[in-house]
Amino acid sequence: MCSGVNELRSASLEMAIPPAERSKILEAMNEFDSTLLPTDEWRDWQNNRSQLWALKYEGRLYPPKKIISLATGLPVGKFSGGPEAIDYLEKHELEVIRLRQFTLDSVFKLILERYDEARKSIEYAGNHEIKEFFDEAGRIIRVSSTLTGHPNINVVTSYGKGDFARIPWISLLDKRETETTQAGIYIVYLFEEGGKGVYLKLAQGVALAQKEYGAKAKEALQENAGKIRVQCSNLASHGFDLSGKTNLQTDSKLGKLYEASTIAAKRYSSDAMPSEAELFGDLKILLSTYDGYVINRDSATQPILDQRRLALIGTWRSVADDAEEVKQKIQSNGGWASWWSFTIKEEAQPRLSTPFNLYAYTGNGILGAKLRVAEYKTSRGNGGLESPWPELTDERWRGTTRVSNAQSGIFKTWFRIDRIEVLDPPMVVSAFDISPSLSTAQNVLNQNTFGYVYDRDDDVTSYSKTEPLLEISLDWLAQQTGLSSSSLQEMITALRTDSPQIILAGPPGTGKTWVARQLAHYLTRGNPRCIRFVQFHPSYTYESFMEGLRPVTRNGGISFEVTNGLVLDCVENMRRCGDLNNPAQDHVIVIDEANRANLPKVLGELMFLFEYRQQSVRLQYSGDFLLPANLRFIATMNTADRSIRSIDVALRRRFDVFELRPDPEILRKYYENNRPSLPGLVDGFVQLNQMLESELDRHHTIGHTFFMRSEMGAETLRKIWTRRVFPLIEEFFFDQPQFTREFSLERFWPAANGA
Fold it and tell me: Where is the AAA+ ATPase domain (predicted)?
């Protein structure tokens, strides 16, 4: 359901943990100290590697699940010890800290130890420890150096859809081969039912084979695996089993297909788990083989993927009445943030290239409006998300993740909408082809999920002629960003030179993305059609940013066509609307988190064009290309993630770098506007960053935006510290965890004590 426009269902989520007074929890801690701590079972509980979290109270540490169990009478096996327990204790104004960091081997062991019991004892929905384990495993793999040389790899994790899977998995998909686990060849970690071991495999997607071959899918998978296995014989010398025989300890039909899909495999036992270094060593070998397969694959084993552009369908029955108000907000603010109470399927996300269309279903098979999605953010589970674009969000939805505890009231997906069109005449759903791996005819129209169809609009990324808008004042920009007019003028001047590229660099929470957006809004005079936004990540490629060959299915076969990336697509639209080299109308590309990608590889010829705007360069497919003089680039870089000094020197000299630092004045001004705040908030903020800068450097500090809330009381500050700030500090000191003990909420904000 969308943005509060539709009526919310009244059903609410039930808490797995029964309520208890704070006094009961304090009594449970006393009981633990007096009766359990002296016993052999609990004397050294903090050294148990399965204990990841600790309840901290008056300088002492306690196991969170056991304390909750003592306080409520609920057995520890009946609820999650991760986010569920943490949220419960924090609601009682108690502090929970992390005892140790995850490694890949440790998180694999935790999944094997706890998954089977969790599957039988806790609810699938919610922010539980199983979700945390899989999120962490995926994160560890994504940021590892093993994936550095593999920009085409997308890491996807799954422990079920609506209910726990018997065989959960973590997959690594090469987008040149497949963008879904339902088809193609990919690497996957498959966790055995019962938790005795996990397989690292080169395997095949089984869903498409099941649809195509039915009862003979198992034989078809085994036959295809045999063909591919010939190309992977080198794996035998590295300890991989090429027999195709694996045992997932399951009798499920899907599990048997997983076994049949095996090309090569290596098993890790739960009681003899290799070190993280060994796990990544095996993954590196398999990635190299996988990469070679993708490059040299035999056409007889090549998957046929439908490369048509995807669109979404979502229920919004009152869209005709609401459209004019939404349109006005887009015109006034450059966009509008829209929340929906369901997620975008994980396997669909790599195929949703922004911008894409969202069609509003109004009932009786009718689509009443078309909205263009410029950006989106979706939850990995049933947890809610705050709007990533508070400036574009209706005030009543800012700074919150839900309107109720009902599933239909939780913000699971946010869209940044930059165009809305009431369809007159309306379209019918039956005019669209359904994406078979994502939707069916029965569920494509469903108020509890998105429908996935192939778009009929071939012009989703094009613009009509740009209408001139009034110039925006510098005072407005200063008010929006909190920066001084002189600082902003320096940025604007740099963006209006012959080399109009700048980098906004700074530690997390300094408002880099917000400032970049506002600068783009200022330069384009608030015209959303003249702004493109992209967030770089380790798997982002030249083909996505500039141009490349992409497979297209035609007449049952595959052909490769040259497809524009974001930059060439933007330039083409500037040409269509008459803005090419028009000094009266700037266009801006905002590159968020630029240093997360392999920049020289992604930028390609832009490295030359950034410096020599007046000269053309010959692209591999499109021929001569010249950057328009009025196309400006604003990049952001997180200096805590990677210092600006480590960026390629050739790239640095093509960008003017502006450093954004934690700014207590912005924080002070923010709360001067009649917003309630905690006494000493700004002073504590200054002291925190002085200590971080003294222990580390100015790049590893905490930005002011973490502390900018509509209301800042002791409870809010404690949540920010526990959930946002302290985990970041732990990350700063990941190799020196003893230093984190010097950082506590009460040290910097005594007024929060006892909150």
Answer: 498-663
